[in-house]
Amino acid sequence: MTLRLLLPFLAIIFSQTTTFALSSVNINSNTNPSRTTMSEIASVLDTDALAVEANSFASANGIQVERKKTEESEDNLFLGAPMSLLPNAYPEQEFKKACDVAPAFNELVERVSQDAEFLQQTLGGGVSTMDPFTAKILKLYHQVYVDDSTANAPAKSADRLGILRSDYMLHSDDDSYQIKQVELNTIASSFAGLSCKIANMHRYLMITTDDEKNDAVFPPATGVPVNPALDELPLAMKVAYDRYVERFTKSKNDNDNPPIVLFVVQDGETNTVDQRLLEFALWETHKIPVVRRSLTRLNSELSVDETTGALKLLKQEVAVVYFRAGYAPTDYGDGEDGIEWNARLTLEASRATKCPCLGYHLAGTKKVQQELARPGVLERFFPEKDETNKVAAMRTCFAGLYSCGDDATPEDLEAIRDVLDGGEAKYVLKPQREGGGYNFYGEELAQKLRSNIERTGDSLELSEDLAEFILMQRLFPPEQNAVLMRGGKVEGTGDSISELGSFGTLVVGSDGKVVHNRYAGFLLRTKFSGVDEGGVASGFATLSSPYLC
């Protein structure tokens, strides 16, 4: 059976009573009286054979993750990355919206990062009191960029590079599904490399899996789009690198020791292939060398020229620092003021371009996301009349976001009461933490609030322990059937939901001038329904591709 015959099935993602307008195609369950299940698809498709084809493509094209080393084996062994065997239907209009709004969110991160007063007001109260990690990042931000000291001159002369990813779920309060922002990632935004390979794999399977006996007609849709992330992310790094060379050195070819791009990575990292794809693209396309180091190792190998602020890794000058680590307390194993924090400060205090700088890192916190969704706050950062369209485009993406701290408004308290009165299924409680696995859902969420709130009638007294959390409207994307693979094997078949990530890249000069601002590709993660968390690296989701309808 041709895989193209499956595409109408991919688009039937709602229950029997729901109509879904997919761009130029209206798929109404009344014309498809029974919902097509993956078991029915499997009856006409040899899933095992298709999995063999997918595994072959994945192995030949590096769709892999590194297996964790064990005491028995220190060898580098690789497994097939978690992936969906088939692409997932996605409304083209909402996909395009996520792409189009990326440059506006890029600008927002830049402007927030330069507003020290806003960051201090938002993060300097209960959040910093209850979350030492965020407090430390905020302290370093003030030390390096805000405090008036000549020692800060090199850092203030540095350009800024953003490789960002805004994550969305489709959600509907009526019959119309729209993207709603889950979070805006500003540090270590991953899977740009592997997502390109997954999209290529799905297009390949669509073309080559064919049965001459079945020449089916499939919905007139644009199919799996080309993912430009492996072009766009290295391009942004090149722009930042070339600006550094132009500003601070004569030429990257002046000698046999050109400046490098430094990838800051975690010890024991398993998502190395995704990172290496960016590294190899930088070299193959732009002839820019990359060196990988952990924060622990960097502490003994870094130095900053006291006169120029040049960052040196042993004898090599560093033009760009790209963080794929440093976003979680576990990356700073030596503790408060330990060697990893010292390395982070050394990197930040130099003239090298950071991706991200401390300001961008702080702009991606959950508390900042919640504060930006308040009425009138976006206008603080986009005050000009010709920027109203940007504000409107971003605001339509916001889900309901509510404070759990001492700045809680009546609207925030009303959402908290809703949880206490049995509405916990409509919300998720999020801390200021990246990496997946930290959120509270359902009864666990309700218990977390009940144990930290004193309620007298309608009056609520919130414990300070809640200050580091935000309460977010829970999003319910449409379900569709999927075959998910993990470690090269079919993990299972069943109803799934997906989360779309839209990459954006940004280069800003030390003078605040934006020199590069682009949409930069996509990521689609798919997981079985009923799984709360959504990270691929943390073992919850798989990599997929959108099939635009």
Automatic annotation (TrEMBL):
Q: Which InterPro entries match?
A: Glutathione_synthase, Glutathione_synthase_a-hlx, Glutathione_synthase_C_euk, Glutathione_synthase_N_euk, GSH-S_sub-bd_sf, GSH_synth_subst-bd, PreATP-grasp_dom_sf
Positions annotated to bind Mg(2+): E183, N185, E434
* GO MF term list: ATP binding; glutathione binding; glutathione synthase activity; magnesium ion binding
Q: Which residues bind substrate?
A: 165, 187-190, 269-271, 275, 324-327, 525, 536-537
Positions binding ATP in this chain are: 183, 366, 430-439, 441, 499, 527, 533
Swiss-Prot/TrEMBL catalytic activity: gamma-L-glutamyl-L-cysteine + glycine + ATP = glutathione + ADP + phosphate + H(+)
Pathway assigned in UniProt: Sulfur metabolism; glutathione biosynthesis; glutathione from L-cysteine and L-glutamate: step 2/2
Question: Which segment of the chain is annotated as a signal peptide?
Answer: 1-21
Q: How is the cofactor bound?
A: Binds 1 Mg(2+) ion per subunit.
Location of the Glutathione synthase substrate-binding domain: 260-363
What's any one GO cellular component for it?
cytosol
Enzyme Commission code(s) on record = 6.3.2.3
What cofactor does this one take?
Mg(2+)
What class does this enzyme belong to in the EC scheme? ligase
Keywords associated with the record: ATP-binding, Glutathione biosynthesis, Ligase, Magnesium, Metal-binding, Nucleotide-binding, Signal
* Top-level taxon of the source organism: Eukaryota
Q: Name one Pfam family in it.
A: GSH_synthase
Entry similarity comment: Belongs to the eukaryotic GSH synthase family.
Full protein name: Glutathione synthetase
* Organismal lineage: Eukaryota, Sar, Stramenopiles, Ochrophyta, Bacillariophyta
Q: Which gene carries the instructions for this protein?
A: GSS
